[in-house]
Amino acid sequence: MSNSSSLNQFLLLAFADTRELQLLHFSLFLGIYLAALLGNGLIITAVACDHRLHTPMYFFLLNLSVLDLGTISTTVPKSMANSLWDTRAISYSGCAAQVFLVALLLGGEYFLLTVMAYDQFVAICRPLHYGTLMGTRACVRLAAAAWASGFLYSVLHTANTFSIPLCQGNTVDQFFCEVSQILKLSCSDSYLREAGLLVVTACLMFGCFIFIVLSYVQIFTVVLRMPSEQGWHKAFSMCLPHLAVVSLFVSTIIFAYVMPPSFSSPALDLVVSVLYAVVPPAVNPLIYSMRNKELQDAVRKLIQLLLFQHE
Q1: pTM of the model
Q2: Which terminus, N or C, of the chain has the lesser number of Cβ atoms within 10 Å?
Q3: What is the pLDDT of residue 68?
C-alpha cells in the first residue's frame, strides 16, 4: 500500500514491449506531432501576419491553434521520449503538470468552441449588429473568458486530484497522466469528492453543448431561408469546419468519460485518449483550411515568402 505523500514518480502505460514496436510508436507520434506543429504554426503565423485575416473568426481560430499546440506538446513528447529511452517513468511533479496543462488546454478549447459558435450565430443571424457585438474589445474578452474558464477548471481538478490519498500503487494505465486513471489509484472512500466535481463539470459542459446545438439550429434555420445559393455556400463554408471540430472533440470526450466500466479496457482507453488528445490538434488545421480560400491564400503566400527568404 503506497500513499500519495510518499510517491515520487508514476509509471505510464507502455505502447509496446519490443524495441521494434517502441521505435514504431516513436516514429508515428513524431510524424503526428510534426504535422500538428506545421499545421497550427502556419495558421498562427498566417493569421498574425495577414491583415485580411484580422477578423473575429480568425482571431478565435488563432487561439484554437495555440490550444491545440499546447495540448499535443503536453502529452506526446513525453510519450515519445519514454519509448525512445525504453522507460515508463514520469515524476510526481511532471504528472501534476500534465494533469494541470491537459485540463487547462482541453477545458479552454471546449469553452472557446462555444464562443466560436456564438460568433457564427451573430455573423449569420444578427449580421447588422455583428460589428457592435463582436468588436475588438468584445473578442478579446470572450477569448480571455475561455482561457480563464479553462484555468479555473484545471486548478480545481488538479488540486482535488492530488489531494486525494493514493493507495493502489503508482501505475497509470494511460500514456499520459489522466485524471480518470489517477483516480483509479485512490482510496475507495476518497473517490467521491472528485466524482462530485466531475458531475458538476459534466453539467457545465452539457450546458455549453446545448448552447452550441441551439446556436446551430437557429443558424441553419436562417441559412435555409436564404434565397441565393451563394449565400448558402458562404454560410456553410463558415459553419461546417467548426461543426466538424466540435463533433470530433465532443464525441471523443464523451466516449472517454461516459463509457460504462464494463466496456473499458486498457487498449480501448488508449485508443480513445489518442483520439481526443492527439488526433484533433493534427487534423483541425486541415479541417479549417480545406474549404477556406482566404486561409489557403494566406498560408500559400506565407510559404512562398519563407521559401523566398531561404533562397
Answers
A1: 0.89
A2: C
A3: 95
Rounded Cα–Cα distance for residues 8 and 92 (Å): 5
- pLDDT under 70: residue ranges of the chain: 1-6, 188-195, 229-231, 257-264, 309-311
pLDDT at res. 227? 76
Q: What is the residue-wise DSSP string for the chain?
A: ---GGG--EEEPPPS-SSHHHHHHHHHHHHHHHHHHHHHHHHHHHHHHH-GGG-SHHHHHHHHHHHHHHHHHHHHHHHHHHHHHTT--EEEHHHHHHHHHHHHHHHHHHHHHHHHHHHHHHHHHH-GGGHHHHT-HHHHHHHHHHHHHHHHHHHHHHHHHHTTS-B-S-SB-SSSS--HHHHHTTB-GGGHHHHHHHHHHHHHHHHHHHHHHHHHHHHHHHHHHT-S-HHHHHHHHHHHHHHHHHHHHHHHHHHHHHHS-GGG--HHHHHHHHHHHHTHHHHHHHHHHHTT-HHHHHHHHHHHHHHHHHH-
